[in-house]
Amino acid sequence: MPDISPYTKGIADCLESLGHESPEKLNGNHEVAPRLINMLQGRMLEHLKTRVSSHYGLKPDSLNEEFSIALIEVFSEIFGVFRKRVEEEPWLIFHIAKRIVEVETNLCENPQKRINQFYLSVFCKYFELQNLEIIISKMQSDSRIQNSIHNAQSLEKQPPPPSSV
Fold it and tell me: What's residue 39's pLDDT?
């Protein structure tokens, strides 16, 4: 089983504090919803960062803060669409949060594949991205993201400094 994200742990803790109510009954819980939205968006960005690292053959922590900030800015419009949808259907954030915890914590034969498929479906269904080419083109056209990837690749290719004896 892959390591559980700190975001997923936070989402699980937040949901646990609410008991076992259905997403529809939690509809009016305006204290927890903004926190869940932020954690969900953070987890989505973390997932994208992991996928980009994997795609380019980088270590998971190779992409720096500049990459994360650029990713947030690139996806701000997409997250705006999502927040608007949650305002119209407040139960949705609780539903997605429960699914994140379920998908990321249940044992299965290929957990990373299941997690990747889950986030792909979330982007398509709830972020109104019917064409994932939008995500790819946004990431490929942002020079900060591309520079971060290039810098991470360069750093990983450098030999380690000699150890001092």
Answer: 94
Written in H, E and C, the secondary structure of the chain is CCCCCHHHHHHHHHHHHCCCCCCCHHHHCCCCHHHHHHHHHHHHHHHHHHHHHHHCCCCCCCCCHHHHHHHHHHCHHHHHHHHHHHHHCCHHHHHHHHHHHHHHHCCCCCHHHHHHHHHHHHHHHHCCCCCCHHHHHHHHHCHHHHHHHHHHHHHHHCCCCCCCC
Average pLDDT, the chain: 82
CA distance 62 to 34: 30
**Cβ neighbours of residue 123 under 8 Å, at least 6 residues apart?**
44, 129, 132, 135
pLDDT tens digits along 21-37: 666 666 655 678 888 99
* pTM for this predicted structure: 0.81
Q: Yes or no: say if 91 and 23 are a contact pair by the CB < 8 Å rule.
A: yes
